[in-house]
Specification:
155 residues; 0% strand; binds fe (ii) ion; Hemerythrin; Hemerythrin-like
Length: 155
């Protein structure tokens, strides 16, 4: 599967997992620290921290440079700025979540707000990539270049 198709599959998975995250937060508010919610959250944490960082990193390392080479005025600078905002929300989410997990009940609203900020910025970001940036890349890169995106690097 070429990189852009793979990224779109991952976007769809993130949309579903963001929905699960919102439902778990709602469940915690209503029911408190139930086992189901705690286990689900623990499973979602790497998805929205380590995995998300790698997803953005693959876009930054393999795809964005190829677009910048060919097009002067693209969404790439905006995407990079959004990656930073998304990574910041991700770090705030993880930090607050870990405090709360250790028993600091006052940390709850902090990580919930960070999770909401992550959801808000990440969903529109993925839409821009799916609907604007990836179609642009498909237009300006040959099929062979698209196939090589996963192995290409800046060196
Ligand atoms: Fe991105
Ligand atoms: Fe993405």
């Amino acid at each position: 599967m070429i990189l852009m198709d793979q990224l779109i599959v991952e976007h769809q998975d993130y949309v579903e997992k963001l929905q699960t995250l919102a439902e778990v937060i709602q469940g915690l508010r209503v029911n408190g620290r139930g086992n189901y919610f705690m286990e689900t959250l623990e499973g979602l944490l790497p998805v929205f921290t380590t995995d998300l960082d790698r997803h953005a990193g693959r876009e930054e390392d393999f795809l964005f440079p190829r677009i910048v080479e060919r097009v002067n005025d693209s969404l790439v600078p905006v995407m990079l700025t959004e990656h930073e905002a998304i990574r910041q929300a991700s770090r705030d989410f993880e930090k607050g979540y870990r405090l709360w997990r250790q028993g600091d009940d006052a940390a709850f609203e902090g990580w919930v707000n960070a999770a909401a900020a992550l959801r808000g910025s990440f969903v529109t970001h993925m839409q821009k990539e799916n609907l604007i940036l990836f179609p642009l890349a498909r237009r300006i890169l040959t099929p062979d270049e698209q196939a090589r995106l996963t192995t290409w690097n800046d060196g």
